Each structure stands twice: as structure tokens, then as C-alpha cells.
Amino acid sequence: MGDYSRDDMKRINYYIEENRSRFIDELFQFIRQPSVSTRNEGIQSCAELLAGFMTKVGIKVQIFKKSHHPIVYGEIIKEGQPTVLIYGHYDCQPPEPLDQWTSPPFEPMIRNGKIYGCGSSDNKGQLFTYLKAVETLIQVEGSVPLSLKFLFEGEEEIGSPSLKPFAINHRQLLKADLALYSDSHIHESGKPLLILGFKGMLYVELIVRIGSRDLHSMQATSIPNPAWQLVWALSTLKDRSNHILIPGFYDAVAEPTPLERKMVAQIPYDEQSLLNHFGIKDFLPGRDNSNYYMNLIFEPTCNIAGIVSGYVDPGAKTVLPALASAKIDFRLVPNQEPMDILDKLNHYLEQQGFKDIKIVPHMFIEPSRTPIEHPAVEIIKCSIRQVYGEDPLVLPNTGASGPNYIFTGLLGQPCFLIPYATCDQNNHAPNENMNLESFFKGIYTGITLIQNLAKSSSFRD
Amino acid sequence: MGDYSRDDMKRINYYIEENRSRFIDELFQFIRQPSVSTRNEGIQSCAELLAGFMTKVGIKVQIFKKSHHPIVYGEIIKEGQPTVLIYGHYDCQPPEPLDQWTSPPFEPMIRNGKIYGCGSSDNKGQLFTYLKAVETLIQVEGSVPLSLKFLFEGEEEIGSPSLKPFAINHRQLLKADLALYSDSHIHESGKPLLILGFKGMLYVELIVRIGSRDLHSMQATSIPNPAWQLVWALSTLKDRSNHILIPGFYDAVAEPTPLERKMVAQIPYDEQSLLNHFGIKDFLPGRDNSNYYMNLIFEPTCNIAGIVSGYVDPGAKTVLPALASAKIDFRLVPNQEPMDILDKLNHYLEQQGFKDIKIVPHMFIEPSRTPIEHPAVEIIKCSIRQVYGEDPLVLPNTGASGPNYIFTGLLGQPCFLIPYATCDQNNHAPNENMNLESFFKGIYTGITLIQNLAKSSSFRD
Question: Does A426 touch chain B if contact means CB atoms closer than 8 Å?
């Protein structure tokens, strides 16, 4: 590693400098094409545009249209070489509220070294670094030193509903030694990050209906109130020290390894500034760790994301509601399984006598965590160090949930997320932006990674 | 009682028959004038129209405009005679949804023996029976046999905010031996009713705000969730057997007298048809009585009228809310006091550690119950029997809350509510109606009541 020739490096630098403005122009074209998945706006055109960019780079492309929004698949096969799968998504969030954008969301513009535009960092800019890295290697070296597969979907912002069925039906096509992607942001401290997993999720709605219509609240002497049923049921799920009371909920939780704990302990943070940032006085009581990151990464949650019943407009109305519902998201850690947690929840509520509560599941996402001891971790850390001049922070997983389990679980590939966006990228929000220098650092990191992975086979099964 | 001459009765019957269509015409005029208090629509005109009707009857009228909507006061003073105060309201609810009315809400129309129109029964038609009773007595007998005071407000449908201050400032003007009014409906069984009181109410909103904005729900590992705080707080207010847990909540509850219990036990009801009516399988567990009416009348309540936090639209969103709120109505029985219950609630939540919960009171209504042993009860029962041919059911109070405490508490008057509307009157709803024959029975009851009360002084202090 790190021993490719100075000449090679010079020619790579030269190629990137020479083509700098064209790279930006192409990324602008990519951003200019709206691709709002939730309302199917520009999705087809964006898939074709992306396929065109890939073909021009020298990637063999196939567009799979069977899924709701097309999956753009590409490959460069080097027989006998290790295979790296690169995942990304070309869809973006709706840009609303439009009046809060300084420049229009689909008219990319550079201000203060940042490319502003909807989808600029999430995920068009970060995805594009891989294409430009591959282009550079092909143009400078004549080819890439390993097999590459590209899996770009158009439904990430709506929960990737087609990705899992696609993966199930194309196991062979997607076979690889490891998966790489860049769809997050570097740490608040400015340090680069290497993310090894995501939390899972079980998202359920609890619904209680009693009677056929809202009644005058004087009937509360005799008629059961679904809001009370719901409150009592919820209060049995978690105690005031934030311990989740569903029997067996914690049974499958994998104890973090000493190395995982060590990595997380290294994440810099200032408790007081975090409290200020969130506008609160104290963190939750009852956590296992006082360390914010230890909890964020290793603790599963049971969160009320929404609750509603009866009269919720201003003022007073005396109603006995007929309907009450709550939305609950459980963030799960390895090796909890969303289906198993749902069974346990069902069983517990029934056992507690809440037979009238209907449980409607909305989302199942399995947790994923590529082992921190995996040999590719060191290769990737080293590659990042070569570009950034410092080691990345390593997160066993983030606090959020994502589709990594499709790679780690379903396809059996270690999966690594290396973010290039800065932490002020405003993703899912007005004035989303991609830092220009981070974009080019991403291209360099991609090149270095491909070179270093090609030189080592230690990460192959 | 009941011994006025057959000649008198004949002349009264004759007068009412002769003037039947004019009475209906005048009531139509009254209904035709919109008087939607919540949006101040037609209120002034309606107050003046009502004052005109009263003046024509022979009542000395004053319009008090100092309050938000005018109070129309009238009197006929007979020195040395007992004084009866008649209360009513000329305002009505908004008629919406308009498309559910068979005929337009402010164009009264008779169909199947019922006058349809917004305000027809609540309260214009029922109020009007007193005016026509007084007119009949004056026209037939030359005068009324006792002093009458009339207190008609235009804010009942918005919670009577000016009535209490008006009563405080006009104690002498409103001094009377008893108060009468008609603003409800007869019993489902078709039996006439005599209502002696109302429940009180404390209506509060519990508000929990944590942090300044909604967060990504991954923060649930460290950031407190106001919806959980609220759920835990609510679950400490009432247990699953519906016992209210606020210390001292039941302390002031007056034990029903044997006569009150006896009266309530006589109310006919069919448990299964009530269950069907409400669309439920079982009544609440944990009540003191198995009798629906015993609970409705004698039990105080703690009802969740509304609760909301976080994401409540369809589908899934993973948010950690910054705000949660619940609206709670406590229906109170004699001698509970809303201010005292508020203090106890405050103290209890604080003691339970819910210091971040803000309690915003919306409504204070004191419970009222005129003693069932009051001597006027027998006079009124007898008057109703003369008109209906059967004894009324006597309710110590209804399950609802009303302004009776202004009479019973503030002004120290026994207060009696005699409904004339039928139970299918649709008040506060499209196709509100007043049964024509009930309207005329109301006029006869008013006449009989005035005559009988004049003959007895046993009800005077």
C-alpha cells in the first residue's frame, strides 16, 4: 500500500486538474436533472443520464426497469481479480420549501467553495466521485486493477422498497468481495469517518378503536376511552429510566467488542456543546454509558414518533374519542431482528391485557455491522490517511438505520461507508450543498482505495 | 295546586288554540334571525328581536351591551309575591356542515310535526315557551300571579364567559326565589324530565416541550422525548380500573342521598341497547355501580379529550418530537371544586417528578345540585304531571356540565331545568329540530308552573 509510483500519482493529479471544470460541469448536469423519487419526478431521465455518464467512463451498463424506479447497474470485470461493489442512489428528496433556497434547487451554483443544489451531496455528488475515480484510473492507467460493480438505485429516499427483492433475484450479478458507498457526512470535528454499519428498525403503529364515533365526554363514566388504553399500553413498554420492558427485548443484543468500544471512545465530543446544540439541559437518565456516542451507537431504542387522539386543535372541546394511535420506532442493534421484536411486542401487549390494540407494522430493517476486525478496515483506513493526512474515526454503526443489511446480511459482503460531504451539508433540507474540495478528496480517496484494495487480497473470502 | 277553575283552563286552551299559528310564526321569525355566537353573526339583531318579542308580551326589557354579546334582561314585578327567574339563551351553534341539512338552517320548516332550524330547540324554541306562557296568562288572566325575571344571554354556546361577571355585578337585579330554564331534552324513554344540576368541570392542557425542534429519532438514545414524559405522566393519573389516582381527588365528593339514589334507580334503561347504541361490547370496568345512570350522574371523571405529538400523518416518519400535549377534562360532582382539583393535580405531578409539564387551565365550572328535597321539586313534579299525565324522572344532575352553579352557587337560588325538546332533537348538529307538540306542552307547563308556584310559598326562603 502507498507504494504506487510518484509518476503515476503525478499523472493522476495532472489528469484531475486538467479535467476539474469538466467534472464539475458533469456533476452540475447530474444535479440539474430533478429526480424526486417520492413523486416520480424526473426519475427515468435521471437514470438514463447516469447510465450515459457511466458508459462514457467505460462501464458496461444495464438499466433494470422492473422495479418501481429503475436500478442502474454497471460493471467492469477483471477476471481473477477481487470484486468491489459500489452502491449509491440517484434519487433525491423533494426540495420544498422552495422559498428557503438561496438559489433554485435544480440550478446548481457554487458559492464559498460549495456546490448548492438538491441532491448535490445526497447522493449525486458523493456517488459521482466513484465514477470520476474510475474514469481517471482508466484514462491514466489504461484500466482499473480489479473488478468493479455499480449498483445505483432510484428509491433510497423512499425506503429502498425494490432493493431487497432485486438483491434476492440477482445474487450472482451482485456477488462481490466487499461493498463501498458514500452517503453520509464526515464528523462534526472535521475528521474523516469510516462507518461499518447501521441500526435496524421496527416501525409500528398501535391503533385502538372503541365504538364507532366520538362521543360527548360526559360518557367517560361508562364508555372506555381508546386514548387511555393507548397511554396505559405505552407506559408498559418503557419505564421512566428508559429501560424497555418488553420481555426479551435485549436478549439478542450483541455485546460490543473491546475494539468497537475503543473506537467509539475516540470520537471527540463536548457534552455541553451537544446539550446546547439540542437545546436541552440533561441527557436521558438511565443509559448504560454517560458517553453520548456509546449510547448512540450501541443502545437500541423505543421512540414515540407520533401519537394522536381526539381533539387537538386550539382551545377546549370535550370529546371522548373513538380512535387513538401511536407510531413507534424501535432502532435495533446487532443481533436483534425486527420480526422477532414484533412478535415479542405482540405477545407482551396481549399478555398485559391490551387485546384491543391493533399493531400495524410499517418498516422492517435489519441491523448491520461489518466486523471492525475485518482486514479491509485497515486497507481503507490507510487509504483515507493517504488522502486526508489523518486516520478516520471508525463507527461500528451510526445511530440511523440504512440498507446495509442487504449487503452484509443478504449478499454476505462486508460493507463500508466513507462519507465525503461536510457536516453542514443540509441534506433533506433547503440549501443542500457539497463541498467542492471534499468532492475532489472523494475522487482521490476512490482512486487510492481501488489501488490499495487491488494490491491486497487479504480482504477476500 | 291543580285547583284553578275549569273556566280559566278553558280560556287558556282557547287562547292558545286561537293564537297557535301566530306563536309558530313568531318562533319562525326568531329562528330565521341567525345568532351564531362563536362568529358574532346576527347576535345584535337577534338580541333586539328577542327584546321586541318580550316588550310585546308586556315585559319591561333592558339590553345589557357591556358584555361581549348582549344580555337581554326583562322583568314583571309583583310586589310581595315570590320571584321566579327564567334563564335561556338566544345564540346558536354554527350550522355547518350545511350540505347535511335537508332544509336551510335559518329557513325554519315544519316536517312530520317538527320545526327544523338551527337553534329551533337549542334554545330558541324552549326559551320561547316561557314568553308565550306569560303572554297567555296576561291576556287571559290580566296579569301574572308572581314576579318574573328573564335572563337571556347570547354566549351560552361559547361557554357563557360574561354570565358570571354579570351575575356578580347584578346580584340584586337577579335576586329570585328560584330559577327555571329549559335547555336539554326529555328522556329517551319519552318520559318528561326534571334536572336539578350539572357536573362541574376542570379542563386543562398538559404541555411538555423539550428542546427547540423535532430531531431525527436516532437521537432517542440520549435526548428526552416529551411524548414519553406525557404518557408516563398521564398513566399516573388514572389506573386501568379507572380509579383516579390524584391524592384527595375524591375527598370532597358528596355521597348521594338515599332519595337521589332512589330517583336515579328509577330511570329506565336497557344495558344491551345502550351498548349497541355506543357500538361497544362492555362498559368500563371499575365503576362503583353497575347502573349506567348511577355512574353518569354520581361519578366524577378524568377523560383524555385529545393528545398529540410528533408525526401523525399517514405512513412512517422517524422523528423525536420537541412538543407533546394532552387535553384533559375532569367532570366534577358536588362538592368538588375545580380550583382545588387543579391544585391537587399540580402538586401531584410535581411530586411525581414531572416538573417539565406545564398545566394550562382552559375551563373552570363548579358542579351544582339543587337538593332533591327542596319543596319546589314537588310543585314542579305536580305541574309536569298535570300536563304530561305522568311524573317526570328526576335527575340530581346530568352527566354534562352547565352554568347552573351561577344560580345555585353565586346567586343562592335553587335551579330547575325542565326540557321540552325530544331526544332526537339533533342539537349542535344538522337538522336540529323542535317537536311542535312538545313546544305547546312547554307553554302549558310554563303556565301551570307559574300558577302552582304562585299558590304555594313553601319554596321561598
Answer: no
